[in-house]
Amino acid sequence: MHPCALCCCSTADVSEEFLRSRDIRYVYFNYQLDGIPCKDDFGRTHTPRDLYARMLAGAEAKTSQVSVGEYMEFWRPLLEAGQDVLHVTLSSGISGTYNSACAARDQLAREFPDRRLIVVDSLCASAGYGLLMDRLADLRDGGMGIVELAAWAKSHRLEVQHWFFSSDLTFFIRGGRISKAAGLVGGLLRICPIMRVQPDGSLAVVEKVRTKHRAERRVVKIMHELAQGGSDYAHRVFISNSDCLADATAVSDLIEAEFPKMDGRVRHFDIGATIGCHTGPGTVALFFWGKPRQ
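and the corresponding structure tokens:
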């Protein structure tokens, strides 16, 4: 057992098997589907295909963050076992969960005055958040202590580049990110909006590209421009998708051909329910280590 428990939320959008293999603990986010409470539990409650089919059929999907009480219940056994805890949260730019985690931390600090409980805002989302956790696990396994790990996360979190595109605008229109008029025109012209996570951790549309094929090429070109080492990039790459694995595979095939020095193959994951409730189906997200976001 590591003296430091490295923890995150299920919104890191990797798999349970992956998190367990890295000895990363996790707490589930929450969502409601037509008013029925569900856990964002890596697709056990609703597979991505089932979730998106229900959403497309008109089911109302709402998400909610981890509560103060849920954080306390999650961390208390770790602290009781004598472990210090470093918890990295989903970006404060898209969720209030960081504030809930800090409130829980402050309450538990009085209960466990001899233990360290550190909360860090990832400013990352989906498998970009997962990519940050993966690197932190490497550093912990290399002997880095909890204080140094937290400092490293804060110093390097903006180096995780997040680039998304979507071939289905339905839920971007419903969520107000794209207007109905723009969505109608975009659908007719086969527009794929390209989005990124900003330095403040929020998601923004930055380009609009015609056709999915061009969007696939565009995000790979962006990786050439921003990746650490450029075309000699030597770190890991994660890709997540919302029920469009073929589109994600088209991107990973390009990356594996054009970045021969990367660390292993591209890892594919599903976009989880929390993020997926907002994107709907048809979204591909590319994550890599790059220049700090500006």
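(Above: one complete record from the training split.) The chain has two domains: 4-158, 159-289.
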